[in-house]
Amino acid sequence: MSESWIAKAPSNIALIKYMGKTNSKVNLPTNGSLSLTLGHLLTTVKISELQGSEDQWSALTGEGIQAVELSEKGKRRFLDHFSFLKKEFGIEGTYLIESGNNFPSDCGLASSASSFAALTLASYELAKSKASADYMLSELANLSRKGSGSSCRSLFSPWCQWREDSVEAIEALPNNLLHSVVVVHNGRKKVSSSEAHLRVLTSAVFEGRVERAEKRLSDLKQSLRTKNWKESFEICWAEFWDMHGLFETSAPPFGYMTPQSLQVLNQVREQWEEFNDGPIVTMDAGANVHLIYRADQLELAKDLNQKFSQEYSTYNSF
Ligand code: PMV
User: Fold this and answer.
1) Most buried one in 3, 46, 87, 243, CB count within 10 A?
2) How many whole angstroms from 299 Cα to the centroid of ligand 1?
3) 193 and 157, same structural domain?
């Protein structure tokens, strides 16, 4: 039997968003971002030796693994990143790359962050088995970044900050938070995130965006550290609306919100209005709504989940 190398990596959700690049070739962001790593949403990548002259990709199968579906373009992008890593690590030979998630690939959750992070880590395992290789986690994160920007944050847990080419774990922020995503739409995006990064630069309100995001990043770390949950909610709420506002004011405009997204957002807002407490809310470049609860809000998380799951699929860490 041929040898194989396996690695797993988690997804992550940004509370301060990476949107807009200063360099599209190597994915350098216009502003710093802060994310929470989602340890319950994992991609596994397995690399095996292959006869032949070209690397190939196929869906990984196995217990607890749900096969990923990749478009031709998606396969190409994944294999191109593997070629880049082979060069970087001095790996020779031809390989089969298999990948799969522990969550359904059609559930509307972006898996590119976890996939590229897992591919980078599995390639590093392969490199170490062939020759001595000694990379720091931050160096591996920067390699992953070149395949998919947001994937660099998946190598640090539970909180990661990324600014330019500096990716690091942020200490002293709350641990054991609960995460839930309400999947209101699971189709393919009409505008890819790569296209969104380019298009937001055309928005008149992109002016000032870097300053707004940087201020929120600093304010959010402070409010999380001082356990000011309401202020953390308000900062994150303003931040995802800022990003979605950039989308809608780009030339030409585009958007991901659906009436169902708004319905979920309104219910969460009502929860806050009534009880002066609730989950932190955020949205990615998509229609689905991510909710983050403190560990002591488990009952509330279960109650809201019960409501949302009557109409939509939800994926929870609790
Ligand atoms: O890594 P990309 O190019 O798919 O960019 C993703 C950007 C957002 O998910 C919209 C925000 C973020 O910071 O993750």
Assistant:
1) 243
2) 31
3) no
